[in-house]
Predict the 3D structure of the following.
Amino acid sequence: MSFLLILKFLLKLIIILLCLVVFVTVSVLFYPIRYKIKGKVDTENNNICVDGKVTWLYHIVSVFFHVKEVDIKNFDTDVYLKIFFKKKYFFSTEDLEEKTEDLKENKEVLKEPKEDSENSKKFEENSEEEIESSVTTEKNVNDNESLQYKTDVQNVNEAQNEKKVNLVTKVKKIFSNILGFLKRIKYKFKSFITNKKNSSNKNTSAVGKLYKKIKMIYNDSDFKYTYAFLKEKIILLLKIICPKKVKGFAEFSLAEPDKTALVTSFFTLFPVFYAKSFHIYPDFNAEKKYVLAEFEMKGSFILLSIIVLLLKVWFNKKVMKFLGKIRRVYNA
C-alpha cells in the first residue's frame, strides 16, 4: 500500500509540473505585450512631457519611462523595470546628479591632505636651506676677498678669446642651418608626391572592389526574391507592432508655408496620423516655428506572431542562401 501511495504522489507531482510548464509556455507565447504612451509638447512654453508603460505576463513584468523638460537643454528621465514589487532603474537623472556630487566631494577631500603635506615639506626644506646658508656665508666672505683680484684678471683674458671663437662658430652655424633647411624641403617634397600617388591608388582600388562586390550582389538571381520577401515580412512586422488606438492632435508651423506643406504631406503617408481620433492642423500663416501637440497611443502584440515571422525567414532556403553569398562576397 505504501508503494502505491508513493506512486500516486509522484504521478500528481509530474502532472502538476507538466501543467505549470504548459501554462508558462502558453502565457509567454500567447499573452499580449501591451504598451501605452502619453505625451504633451509645447515648444513655445518649453513644456515637453512623455510617459510610457509596457506590461507583460499578467502585469508581473512591466517597464516604465518618464521624460520631462526642465530647461532648453536638460531633461528629467526615468527608465525602470518592475518585476512583482521590485524595481530596477536603468537610467535616472537623480542618480546621475548624486554620483557627480559624490565625485566632486571625493576630489575635494583628496586635494586637502595633499596641500597639507606639500606645505609641511616646503617648510622643512626652507628651514634646512636657512641653516646651510648661514654656515656657508661666513666661509664665502673670507674666500671671496682673496679670489676677486684673480678672477678679474682671468675674466678680461677669457672675454677677448671668446669674441674671436664666437665669430667663427656663428658663421659655421649659419651655413649648416641653410643646408639643413634645403635638405628638409627636398625630402618633404619627395615624400608628399609619393604619399599622394599611393593614396590615390589605394582609394581607386578600394572603391573599385566595393563597386564590384555591390554589382555581384545586385546581379545575383536570388536578389529580387529576397528583397520582395523581406520587404513583405518587415511590413507585416510593422503592422503587428504599430499602435491600434491613437488619440490627440498636433498643431505646428515651420515659419514657411512650403516646409509646413512638405511635412504634412509626409505625415499623410502613414495611416496612423490621419485616423479619426487624431487630427493634424498645419499653420501656414504663423511667422514663428512652434509645435503644440497632445497624444495617447495604445497597442499590443503577441510574441508568437514575431517568432513565426522570424522562423519563416530562417527556414526559407533561398533567403539563407543569398545571405550566405553576401557574407562570402563581403569577406572576399
